[in-house]
Amino acid sequence: TETRTRIFFCLPSIVTHQSSQTKELCEKQRTSWLAAISRQDIKPANFHYTRVCSDYFTSGKPAGLYDTTNPDLAPTLKLGHQLMKPGDSCRHTTAVARDAKKRKIEEDTIQSATTMASDIESSDRRFS
């Protein structure tokens, strides 16, 4: 059997000193965590002390704030209730592949533009 070290993660905080989009994402992520945990004894005064074990995430850790398609955006495993379904990792994998493809297209475009500019510059030198 595989033994994995347990890590405890704080409930996501609400970031207010950045953009309104960041604040919205923070609020959405915290709400998702609280819905997943589904414990009546967690009150706003206790949010700072609330911890969630790595066993509750498919990858062993929560997703980043802007990684909205990641199934680990909120805890989904071993919750003791059936309110939440495990995240759809297929959707996340597709989104990651799509982003990688976009980046490659952008890099190829930049590379071809650089090559074209270099070709034009060298042809200008030949004719001068």
Report on the architecture of this protein.
The protein is mostly helical and 128 residues long. 45% of the residues lie in helices and 5% in strands. It contains two helices and two strands, in the order βαβα. The protein has a two-stranded antiparallel sheet.
Features:
mainly alpha; 2 helices; two-stranded antiparallel ribbon; 128 residues; 2 strands; elongated
What class, by secondary structure content? Answer: mainly alpha
Radius of gyration: 23 Å
Number of helices: 2
Helix content: 40-55%
- How many DSSP-defined strands? 2
Mean pLDDT: 81
Spatial order of the strands in the main sheet?
1-2
Q: Give the low-confidence spans.
A: none
Following the backbone from N to C, one meets helices and strands in this order, namely EHEH
Question: What characterizes the major β-sheet?
Answer: 2 strands, antiparallel
What is the terminal-to-terminal distance? 73 Å
Global geometry: elongated
Percentage beta strand: under 5%
Q: How are the secondary structure elements laid out?
A:
Layout: E1 8-10, H1 20-37, E2 51-53, H2 89-127
Antiparallel strand pairs: 1-2
Summarize the structure.
The protein has 128 residues and is mainly α. The chain contains 2 helices and 2 strands.
